[in-house]
Design brief:
The protein is an alpha+beta fold. It is 29% helix and 28% strand.
Length: 576
């Protein structure tokens, strides 16, 4: 492709709203342009990269037996209502106002299940793996970070259909390996974490993550043991509170100026871990009091999963007072104004010698024995893991990092098939719900993460497999030398005939502009052809990522073949 013919509008400076490297460089290199908040147009260079990602995904999905669909983005809302996800999605789902009963699909579990219901009748019809690469729509309230959080994006979503739990396990492992292959081929350094299934539901899920200071997800990882988990489900080996030998009687005491755990510790010399914090949350419409150790933070995802709620939220101040008879800072598990379910974190199980609010403003109880004085409905892990806490595998300190999610796989089980009555006859002629898995990849996120990991102060350094073009052929002094023009055209044509895609900078601009744009766009190999080099019998080749420069000795009659051979050799070295 001749650069003078391609629409690739580079920018010296990125728009003010671009704050992270991938967003800045995608704008500056002419890959995307913003149409509205969270809505981007893919320009020719960006779309070429997107299509290469699509090809890699298709190859890996087809290799595990995937069959490609293309489902409508416009869906009847009644199908979504049957699974309860209209409420679960909330405002994230786009509703078509002038056509009642239609929504824009944020994903396609319901629609795949609908088709499975029509045609999967026997256990012999499975296993099946169905997938698509299609546009999705989500009404993100705060779209940001370029294509990482948009309202319209491209997703590969796949669905497995099985007649047994063992079959689901096999399909799940096939997708996990396919995802590893996809990200490796796309040049990403990634890790896999256990994750919360959230509104998707199901028994298990894993996320594929790329570590980045700009990531919106938080993960706990231990490189020594290989443990990695999203902070929503991460656990650590923190020791629970031990029982004291002496059991003192419950005692109320005044705490008029102590509304926080830190103030209690400071004013009364208490052990922070024996100060039991009480948090009141609503799960759907049911209130819960969650008792936690010291300054531990409630992990909302863990709480929501434990109680099986669709939505959860903290109690408002007026609700808190109505339920407990006190305001924040004086809440506790003893003597509440109303009947409320109390649950506690595992670290407090059977603990005594605790301090917590007395449900009377300005007062607390001490010497609380959780088995003697409290009515606890259940214990679970409700806390958020902190940096440096010991890993459950070996005790090495956990590292808490920000990360970008590039894929998520779920064992859905029968959630959707039961809701939509998608059943089959088993080998005994008995109806059973289809057992499903769901597997998603954000394509634009792969590109953005590749740029986050592969860039320098001059621009992008593309991984070979997903670069818009492989070689950037830079012709110098084209308006002065017909020999340079002829050499560039011959090399361009020969590279393309050899299956190497090449972008030929044939523009009538200064060498400085060409070099700056070449570094900004960041194609893996730059090949510089100028009159001086031709006269000296050599061309210059530059590895964009390493900045290594190689001089190719050429003879005029073998210029083209020698150049192609040198490029092929360099590509092989870069790929190994």
């Amino acid at each position: 492709m001749y650069q003078s013919r391609i629409f690739a509008p580079t920018l010296k400076e990125a728009p003010a709203e671009a704050q992270i490297p991938s967003h800045i460089l995608m704008m500056r290199a002419g890959l995307i342009r913003q149409l509205a908040a969270g809505i981007f147009s893919q320009l020719p260079l960006g779309y070429r990269s997107l299509k290469k990602v699509q090809s890699i995904i298709r190859e890996e999905m087809d290799a595990i037996g995937g069959q490609e669909f293309h489902l409508p983005a416009l869906n009847p809302i009644d199908i979504w209502e049957q699974t309860g996800r209209v409420e679960a999605m909330g405002d994230v789902m786009f509703h078509i106002k002038n056509r009642e009963g239609l929504v824009l699909a944020p994903t396609h579990e319901e629609i795949m299940t609908y088709h499975a219901k029509q045609h999967i009748k026997s256990y012999r019809d499975m296993p099946q793996i169905w997938y698509q690469i299609q546009t999705k729509f989500r009404n993100e309230p705060r779209p940001k970070s370029g294509v990482l959080r948009g309202r319209q994006f491209t997703m590969k979503d796949a669905y497995s259909l099985d007649n047994s739990s063992e079959g689901l396990d096999k399909s799940y492992l096939l997708h996990e390996q396919a995802y590893r292959n996809i990200y490796t081929r796309c040049g990403l350094k990634f890790f896999v974490v256990g994750a919360s299934s959230g509104a998707m539901g199901g028994s298990a899920s894993q996320e594929f993550m790329v570590e980045s200071p700009h990531g919106e997800d938080t993960c706990a990882i231990d490189e020594h043991s290989g443990y990695a988990a999203n902070i929503e489900v991460a656990v650590s080996a923190v020791e629970p509170i031990k029982r004291l030998d002496a059991a003192s009687p419950l005692e109320e005491f005044a705490t008029p100026k102590s509304k926080t755990i830190d103030e209690l510790v400071e004013h009364f010399g208490l052990d922070v871990n024996r100060c039991a914090k009480s948090v009141v949350y609503f799960a759907d419409s049911t209130p819960y009091l969650i008792l936690m150790r010291g300054n531990d933070q409630l992990n909302e995802a863990k709480f929501q999963a434990h109680v099986g709620a669709i939505q959860c939220r903290p109690a408002e101040p007026e609700e808190l007072f109505a339920l407990t008879g006190a305001h924040a800072g004086s809440i506790g598990p003893i003597g509440m104004k109303s009947d409320i379910t109390i649950i506690a974190d595992n670290l407090l199980k059977d603990a005594n010698g605790l301090v917590s609010g007395a449900n009377k403003d300005g007062y607390h109880y001490k010497n609380i024995d959780i088995t003697r004085d409290c009515t606890i409905s259940g214990y679970a892990d409700f806390r958020t893991v902190l940096d440096g806490e010991p890993c459950i595998h070996g005790g090495h300190p956990l590292r808490i990092v920000n990360a970008i999610e590039v894929g998520h796989i779920f064992k859905l089980g029968t959630k959707y098939s039961k809701a939509l009555n998608a059943v089959f006859l088993d080998e005994h002629g008995k109806e059973q719900p289809i057992i499903m898995g769901s597997y998603g990849i954000g394509l634009e996120r792969i590109i953005a993460c590749a740029i986050e990991q592969h860039h320098d102060d001059k621009g992008i350094c593309w991984p070979i497999a997903i670069a818009p073009y492989t070689v950037h052929l830079i012709g110098l002094g084209l308006h002065k030398s017909q020999d340079v023009v002829n050499a560039c055209i011959s090399i361009h044509d020969a590279l393309e005939q050899s299956g190497i895609d090449v972008l030929f900078d044939d523009r009538d601009v200064s060498p400085g502009i060409k070099f700056n744009d070449a570094d900004l766009i960041g194609l893996p190999i730059q090949l510089i052809v100028g009159e001086k080099g031709l006269l000296q019998g050599q061309l210059e080749m530059k590895n964009r990522k390493t900045q290594e420069r190689i001089h190719i000795a050429i003879q005029s009659e073998q210029l083209v073949q020698q150049t192609v051979d040198a490029i092929l050799e360099q590509l092989q070295a870069m790929s190994s």
